[in-house]
Specification:
The protein is built from five helices and 39 strands. With about 750 residues, the chain is mainly beta. It has a five-stranded mixed sheet, with no helix packed on it. A four-stranded antiparallel sheet has the order 2-39-38-37, with no helix packed on it. A hairpin with a 6-residue loop joins strand 7 (about 135-140) and strand 8. Helix 3 (about 700-715) packs antiparallel against helix 4. It is globular. Residues about 5-35, about 650-695 and about 735-750 have low confidence and may be disordered.
């Protein structure tokens, strides 16, 4: 069974304090080395570091779970992401007292960039000031946060060079000097630019790809809108049309990657290669998948990927291999094999069997892939329809039978409907992983978005593969181990998180449950359909959060379940599961869990803690919480923390007491200049030195925030949404909010 373990954090000495500086503080005091004493003993010699500013703007938790409908006034859909190394993170918070766009609450807020240096974490507001609420915002960030993409309908936009097209909504790349460079500057129809959407780019920023219905070049034709669009590559100061057929004829009925088939965004997983020279797109008229290579050069060429109507799912990181489904068959296209490329069948169900339904993920090199099919393609699998039970109306025995089928599937009894999950090493035969239910691809929703293990949209997918393809993490309501996730009080079996290890594929305890209670007791019902355990999705179509470390040994997730003895608040906390065989989890067992479970957030805050992201190696885990995990965090606002391996530094309650300050505080770190390229790096706009504002009372601050929030509500055209928005604003910033500050000893269920 799982072991709830951890390693005690080492306390730094005075010499180390002087060397490191105080994380989150401007200066240190000699002799005052008392650090915060959280109740949690962190694993892996982790230490808490306060990332957001001390007594700074309130941080907004990321939206991305089926439970966030309970607190829509606080969460945000705007992008938040950690750098691949964990030395930087971008997040959303209230605007500062000086600067920013004044947009607060209800999914608004300003975008911040925090970087970790030898002097600690320092945050910078990177939202252009004085822009209308909702008119400007970031769409995506690169893996290392060296590149950011901003959308704005404001023309001209502050620091933009060159200026965008007058009257148009434009996309901008933010450069190291803080300037904003428009991705396009011309259009064939004055003032008509469609609604440009960033869909991917080269890792060094040399190619930036976006969709829009507008004709921005003479050779382009205006698209009909909706999913139908033109695809453009902005590179090296040039704009090129991507959706060009093999005969060099423009095709305005296109989308980058593959269409989702639902209301979710399209499949954009590696649709643009790491160097930007290969871009996969789909003709929505014929359904054929195409590859455009070297779009901005004279050597540009388009090749057909599928022979008929197909569905693009993902590609290798370099774009050489693409995985797509055509006629229920899973194919791999090799762009490196001759002028026409080479197509290989990976999984072909029989004529009477249900074909491949979706791709869960693939390795970076394209040699390994995970997919779902109704057919029995390997020993251990049983054929099923992989079709969700639906309640029909019509009366009589047919309606009664359908009602029973819906009820049975909700209880996990889905015989005849199963979806088989497979692992495949290209060149070999599929290996059976587990039997999932169709409902595992239609998990609880928010905002009309559908979640699931094989959703085409990266921002809605609840499964992830390591870069080497050897490990997979996914969600399911099915009882895949001996653990009882049913619970008689639940409407449906609880969602649990599972991990598959391809290196021990023959093990009977594979996959194993990483979120099951170490005690063996079934989940506790807190009045919801599930048990509140989930992998929080990114809600961003171009990237996923890092729930799984790149070596596959650590999994990070949120849960309302008390999975550790230190978790006493009865609400959502952040957890880590770690595979056995390490210093912190040395025991190797043959039981079905094979790992150690640890609490990462405080475990005693009456408000939810939310996992935000992690570094690729899992050494940095970022989360939001109201818990005071370091002494410097002296307010009750939501803050951003990093549970960092080898991290943590003593926090000083009074750094200059008795004149014991050490030296002069270092200035905030600036964003480094890029090593190569002109569109690499976030940049840093240095704000003017503000005059210290007169302190505001708590009532004045609430009134100001309420006014700003109501202003944002008034911009909503839908009457119902506007009324709901206003109601939530008054709930958050009205009298009820004023009383909330006195609840410090009150424990609330479910974060309410």
């Amino acid at each position: 069974m799982l072991k709830a373990k951890g390693t005690k954090r080492t306390t730094l000495g005075a010499a180390a304090i002087v060397a490191l500086g105080a994380f989150g503080l401007a200066s240190l005091a000699v002799g005052d080395v008392a650090s915060a004493a959280p109740a949690v003993t962190l694993p892996n010699a982790r230490g808490y570091e306060l990332v957001s500013e001390v007594e700074g703007p309130e941080v907004y938790p990321p939206q991305g779970s089926q439970l966030e409908a309970e607190e829509p006034d606080l969460v945000t859909e705007q992008p938040a992401r950690a750098s691949v190394r964990g030395d930087a993170v971008t997040y959303i918070a209230d605007p500062p007292d000086v600067g920013g766009n004044g947009s607060s609450g209800l999914g608004s807020g300003n975008q911040y960039y925090a970087a970790r240096t030898a002097n600690g974490w320092s945050s910078t507001d990177i939202t252009p000031p004085a822009t209308p609420i909702g008119a400007t915002g970031y769409e995506s960030f690169a893996r290392d946060l060296s590149l950011s993409i901003m959308q704005s309908s404001v023309q001209p936009l502050l620091n933009a060079e060159p200026m965008g097209v007058a009257g148009c909504e434009d996309l901008y790349a933010r450069t190291p000097d803080g300037a904003l460079h428009a991705l396009f500057t011309t259009t064939q129809t004055e003032g008509l630019c469609g609604e440009p959407t960033f869909v991917g780019g080269a890792e060094d920023g040399s190619h930036l790809v976006f969709d829009t219905a507008a004709a921005l070049l003479p050779e382009a034709e205006e698209a009909s809108g909706g999913e139908h669009a033109n695809v453009y590559d902005s590179a090296h100061g040039k704009l090129a049309l991507v959706n060009v057929l093999p005969g060099e004829e423009p095709d305005p009925n296109a989308t980058t990657g593959g269409p989702s088939g639902t209301r979710n965004p399209p499949a954009l997983s590696n649709a643009v290669s790491a160097d930007g020279t290969r871009i996969y797109w789909t003709d929505l008229g014929s359904g054929r998948v195409y590859l455009r290579e070297k779009a901005v050069t004279r050597k540009a060429v388009t090749r057909a990927v599928s022979t008929g109507a197909g569905k693009f799912w993902t590609a290798s990181r370099d774009g050489r291999f693409a995985f797509y489904i055509e006629g229920g068959v899973l194919w791999r296209f090799d762009a490196g094999s001759g002028p026409g490329g080479e197509r290989t069948v990976l999984a072909a169900p029989g004529a009477a069997e249900v074909g491949v339904q979706g791709v869960v993920g693939a390795s970076d090199d394209g040699d390994y892939v995970y997919f779902v099919a109704g057919a029995a393609l390997a020993p251990g699998a049983t054929a099923g329809s992989c079709k969700l039970a639906e309640l029909i109306e019509g009366g009589g025995e047919e309606e009664e039978r359908s009602a029973k089928e819906v009820e049975q599937e909700a209880l996990g009894h889905f015989e005849g409907r199963r979806c088989n999950l497979y692992f495949l090493h290209v060149g070999g035969d599929p290996k059976y992983v587990a039997a999932l239910a169709p409902s595992d691809n239609q998990l609880p929703q928010f905002g009309g978005t559908q979640f699931g293990d094989w959703q085409p949209d990266l921002g809605s997918r609840t499964a992830q593969v390591t870069p080497d393809g050897q490990h997979l993490v996914f969600e399911s309501r099915q009882r895949l181990t001996g653990y009882d996730n049913g619970g008689a009080a639940f409407v449906q079996p609880a969602i649990e998180i599972f991990r598959y290890d391809a290196t021990r594929a023959t093990s009977p305890s594979n996959p194993n449950c990483v979120s099951c209670n170490p005690s063996g007791n079934p989940p506790v019902n807190e009045g919801q359909e599930g048990n509140g355990t989930f992998l929080p999705v990114s809600s961003n179509k171009t990237y996923m959060r890092r729930w799984l470390s790149e070596d596959g040994r650590r999994v990070f997730f949120d849960s309302t379940q008390p999975l550790a003895s230190q978790d006493s608040n009865g609400t959502q906390d952040v957890y880590q599961w770690e595979a056995e065989g390490t210093t912190d989890c040395p025991e190797v067992s043959t039981l079905n869990d094979n790992g150690c479970l640890s609490l990462l957030s405080g475990g005693d805050s009456p408000d939810r803690s939310h996992f935000l992201d992690a570094s690729a190696d899992g050494s940095n885990v970022f989360f939001t919480t109201r818990d005071k995990l370091v002494q410097a965090d002296g307010d009750e606002k939501m803050s951003l923390y990093d549970a960092r391996i080898g991290g943590g530094a003593p926090q000083i309650t009074d750094p200059c007491a008795a004149g014991q300050c050490v030296g002069v505080p270092e200035p905030p770190p600036t964003f480094p200049a890029p090593a190569t390229g002109t569109l690499v790096g976030l940049g840093n706009v240095t704000p003017p030195t503000p005059t210290p504002p007169k302190p505001k009372t708590a009532a004045q601050i609430r009134a100001q925030k309420l006014a700003k929030a109501l202003k944002a509500c008034h911009a909503k055209h839908d009457k119902h949404k506007r009324q709901t928005c206003e109601r939530q604003a008054r709930k958050r910033y009205g009298l009820a909010k004023a009383k909330k500050a006195s609840h410090t000893t009150t424990t609330r269920k479910g974060g309410k």
